[in-house]
Design brief:
- With 427 residues, the protein is of the alpha/beta class.
- The chain contains 16 helices and 17 strands.
- The strands form 4 sheets. The chain has a 6-stranded mixed β-sheet with strand order 6-7-8-3-9-10, sandwiched between helices. It has a 4-stranded antiparallel β-sheet with strand order 2-1-4-5.
- Helix 3 (112-122) packs across helix 4 and helix 3 (112-122) packs parallel to helix 6.
- It binds adenosine-5'-triphosphate (ATP).
- Adenosine-5'-triphosphate (ATP) binds at residues 29, 32, 36, 54, 56-62, 214.
- One of its GO terms (biological process) is glycine betaine transport.
């Protein structure tokens, strides 16, 4: 397949995304009075994540499923990597496009490994390569191959099933990944973690991802660009999250952005962008006296206890140790929430507030301790973000004002060129 790479970032970086072009794409379901998707045209760049967001029934899923032809368009063209795929064999097409859905879509009678191996096997990969790929994919989505390889989907949590679903969608190395509300059915904390994982994956893989959600916060967090869709998949605005938050195109988009745009901005900054501090830690196997000494010499009134896999386990304060009487079994406060470096400041803030102690532990891809972010760092970042927003909004207002004044002058002067001028001003 020939691939057209349109963005300089993806060219030559080993990224394998492909462009997706939709041209006047239309779907009219039999028996419906009008089209459900009406003449949609858009270009999605190679290696970017585009999120379709919009109210229920506006045609997000139908548009997405036309890209891999699970739904056949009634009009228009689809090009992937520059190649017109509108009429190609849909089964062949689907082997080149990963697809992840809400219920994970795993086959219940197949093991995790068999599920992941499915498409590479159908595509005719040699057995050895398929086997290696399964291990690689499990590792990629943060599941220990030794532990999960032979399990059946029913033996997994909802979040683990979604991870396997993503591993399966990516197994045959497709340039394009379509995701239809993949995290819609899991609890909010698991959803946050799955979103973080997807961001990390995308940093490594540079696929072209089209992601459907009706959760605007999720769209802000994941999208390089967001397409806000209204009825019949008409595009209300297609732009970066920053642009949509600071300059919504019309009332429909503003309504969708909703209240608290400033707080939503917190979704655009990652934990990796703020200062992560090192914190005194001890391990569960350390002798109590050593833990005590470390806490005393640390200058903090708290220390973080890590479990055998170096994952944050408990916060221990001085008083906890006094009461421990030789055993840490019941001492301290269990760590209730952690964030990764890909989490947003909003996630971190939520975790800090939930934990009620002014800090949250940052962990790596297997949950191992990496550092701590505290309330003060978060508050400073929030202040900076809000200040930047205020400046930007003031600039946009000033520009608008200047444009309006220009137009009024031109009109007052009865200038022949008024039409042309106001056209320029509006543009
Ligand atoms: N098989 C079908 N036959 C007839 N109409 C359909 C069919 N599938 C979807 N529709 C209609 O097409 C429109 C768009 O549906 P679609 O599922 O694409 O919307 P959506 O934006 O993904 O909605 P949601 O967020 O609720 O999943 C809706 O009005 C729906 O009723």
């Amino acid at each position: 397949m020939s691939e057209t790479v349109t963005t300089s970032e993806t060219a030559g970086t080993g990224g394998h995304g492909a462009t997706i072009e939709l041209e006047n794409l239309t779907k009219r379901y039999p028996g419906s009075s009008g089209p459900s998707v009406d003449n949609v045209s858009m270009e999605i760049r190679a290696g970017e994540t585009v999120v379709f967001v919009g109210p229920s029934g506006c045609g997000k899923s139908t548009t997405l499923k036309m890209i891999n032809r699970l739904i056949e368009p009634t009009g228009g063209r689809i090009r992937i990597g520059g190649e017109d795929v509108t009429d190609m064999d849909p089964v062949k097409l689907r082997r080149r496009i990963g697809y992840a859905i809400q219920s994970s879509g795993l086959f219940p009678h197949m093991t995790v490994a068999q599920n992941i191996a499915l498409v590479p096997r159908m595509t005719g990969w040699p057995a050895g390569r398929v086997k290696a790929r399964v291990e690689e994919m499990l590792d990629l989505v943060g599941l220990d191959p030794g532990e999960f390889h032979d399990r059946y989907p029913r033996q997994l949590s909802g979040g683990q099933q979604q991870r396997v679903g993503v591993a399966r969608a990516l197994a045959a190395d497709p340039p394009v990944l379509l995701m239809d509300e993949p995290f819609g059915a899991v609890d909010p904390i698991t959803r946050d973690h799955l979103q973080d994982e997807l961001i990390r994956l995308q940093h490594e893989l540079h696929r072209t991802i089209v992601f459907v959600t009706h959760d605007f916060d999720e769209a802000i967090k994941l999208g390089d660009r967001i397409a806000v869709l209204r009825e019949r998949s008409h595009i209300a605005q297609f732009d970066t999250p920053e642009a949509i938050l600071t300059n919504p195109a019309d009332d429909f988009v503003s309504g969708f952005v909703g209240a608290g745009a400033a707080l939503k901005r917190l979704n655009l900054t990652r934990v990796r962008n703020v200062e992560i501090t090192d914190y005194p830690t001890v391990a569960v196997d350390d002798p109590l006296q050593e833990i005590f000494n470390k806490l005393r010499s640390s200058g903090t009134n708290e220390i973080l206890l890590l479990d055998k896999l170096r994952r944050p386990y408990k916060w221990l304060r001085r008083g906890d140790l006094m009461r421990a009487r030789g055993s840490l079994a019941r001492a301290g406060t269990l760590v209730s929430d952690t964030v990764t470096r890909d989490a947003t400041l909003r996630d971190a803030l939520e975790a800090v507030l939930t934990d009620n102690a002014g800090r949250v532990a940052v962990t790596g891809r297997r949950g191992e301790y990496e550092g701590v972010v505290d309330m003060e760092t978060l508050m400073n970042s929030v202040r900076e973000l809000l200040e930047a927003d205020r400046l930007e909004a003031a600039e946009a207002r000033a520009e608008l004002e200047a444009a309006r004044t220009d137009r009024t002058h031109a009109e007052q002067e009865g200038d022949d060129r008024t039409g042309g001028k106001s056209g320029e001003v509006r543009a």
